[in-house]
Amino acid sequence: MLSMQNCLIKAGSGNFVQNTPISDFLIYLTVEKGMAKNTISAYGQDLNKYEAYLRHEGIDVFEAGKEDVISFIELLKDQGYSPSSTGRIISSVKGFYRYLNYERISENNPTENITSPRKWHTVPKALSLKEVISLLEVKRPTRFYTRDAAMLELMYSAGLRVSELVSIKIENINFESGYIRVLGKGSKERLVPVNTRVIKKIKNYMADLRPGLIKDSNYTSVL
Length: 223
Hints:
By secondary structure, the protein is mostly helical. It has 2 domains: about 5-120, Tyrosine recombinase, N-terminal domain (DNA polymerase, domain 1), CATH 1.10.150; about 130-215, hpI Integrase, Chain A (Orthogonal Bundle), CATH 1.10.443. About 55% of the residues lie in helices and about 5% in strands. It is built from 10 helices and 3 strands; from the N terminus they run H-H-H-H-H-H-H-H-E-E-E-H-H. The protein has helices at about 5-10, 20-30, 35-55, 65-80, 85-100, 130-135, 145-160, 160-165, 195-210, 210-215; strands at about 175, 180-185, 190-195. Strands 1-2-3 form a 3-stranded antiparallel β-sheet, with no helix packed on it. The longest helix is centred in the N-terminal third of the chain and has 21 residues, at about 35-55. The radius of gyration is 28 Å and the shape is elongated. About 20% of the residues are buried.
């Protein structure tokens, strides 16, 4: 029995069975849309991969559901397809189902509301606790070390984004209670607790370095 990986490789050959919904769609793109031969070939390869996956799973193309399309996307990801390549394939599948709907061949469209992988955002990789400690323990021979150490520890301990950190103003900090008022995404405010170690570092920075940094500056309220 062929593995799913072998099915996808074989499906990428560009050959397709005649007199099927996919072949009819490719003819439609050629005759009605006037697309170039290379474009038609790319559509054919993409849809062959999708059809091969459904066939392997025992699913009819007319009865596939949204969860089947999502599983297909996950398979492409597991097989090493880049987001742009996966996005192109899913775009072909979307076009195929729009054709089936337009021609009233099928009312099913499992690709509705599925976002293209090219629009997905990769979540930034956070530093580990060990990595942060290593950074804080490095004694940099620069005049900005007091500031950098305070900002780094504040950002990590409070779970702040960089954009949130740089927008903090002095009046946002309650040194006595150990809280900072943070303006986040969508202009939503939240109170963030800060430990005494961070408060001490901020105070040291404000006493030793900050006065010289804000001299002759219009941003006197910014931390």
